[in-house]
Here is the input.
Amino acid sequence: MAGDWHCCTWGDAISLEYGKALRGHEGSTGRYRVFGSNGPIGWTDQALTQGPGVILGRKGAYRGVEFSRDPFHVIDTAYYVLPRMELDMRWLYYAVKHYRLGEIDDGSPIPSTTRAAVYVQELEIPPLPEQKRIAHILGTLDDKIELNRRMNATLEGISRAIFKSWFVDFDPVRQKAAGKQPVGMEAQTAALFPDSFEDSEIGEVPKGWRVMELGDVLELAYGKALKAEDRRTGGVPVFGSNGEVGLHDQSLVKGPGIVVGRKGNPGVITWASSDFFPIDTTFYVVPKEPCPSLYYLFYALQSHDLGSLGADSAVPGLNRNMAYMSKQCLPPKQLLTVYETLAMPVFTNTHANSQQSRTLAALRDTLLPKLLSGEVRVPEAEEAVEEVSG
Here is the structure.
């Protein structure tokens, strides 16, 4: 501990205030965030307390720690933290995480964190100016991670919206059928859409577009067994049925690619931006000649309820033969190419943002215990952040 740091108990430093029960927060569109033991759970029009503030889960197997800049509400499965002395609230958030207050268990049948068990724990508090500098360093990393998340959500939303408009709702075709130019679309692209519909086995589809079975446009290839203990240190993402589950030093499939949950979480669709290793609880997608675009297939597969096409076994599973029989309306290849030119930069940028966020999160997780214990001082941490950010 640095010489000018103050040692005390958590009971000297803070008060853990009980949240208040609240109904209807799940479906509300209010302006204030509602927090429970595991984090954000809804919205309300009336805040319980002002921000900035720290929320600590009180009941449940997982009791999270959250920070809110704005006024917020806490339900009765969580606490909100009030300082008893002058403390920087964001530093306090990182201190609660560092001292793992959410892991303190009172031993009751229902896992819970009691105030009495927390208050006797010791902590070390730096002077307020240093608290603010520590909070700024760690907060800068978290803020950039959150900004990347929001940017990705926006980019993915745009790409998904274009797919839905063109290939699900057929908006350009409807507009041309009404004698209008498709909104916000270049004439060259608009010319690729027909101006009328025709009947098909799945209902009305754009004239000239084919309706095919999924088995004619893609193969669901089996992943390969790779136990956690057999994975070697490397940078290749390993995918299970619910997304990325680890890293390995060798890939099975050249990326980018699509992973489809087969066992356990059937039908979950995940994008792999680089070379990857899908394990044996998954399929990976191999496009066939009628539809070479993985970007189109990623959203097309999400429009099918693959999770309901289960194998007849005790463990939930996807029957790929049933999936192959699902029908898909397929646009002309020229239009697929145009959509791919729009979607590819979105996927590239979201991957870059995600990779940067991983690096930032790793640095944050390394610096947090060292800054909160005084092992690393602020100037050293600032240099590390500048190296990663710059």
Notes: Residues 128-168 form the longest helix (41 residues). The two ends are 30 Å apart (CA to CA). The chain is about 35% helix and 20% strand.
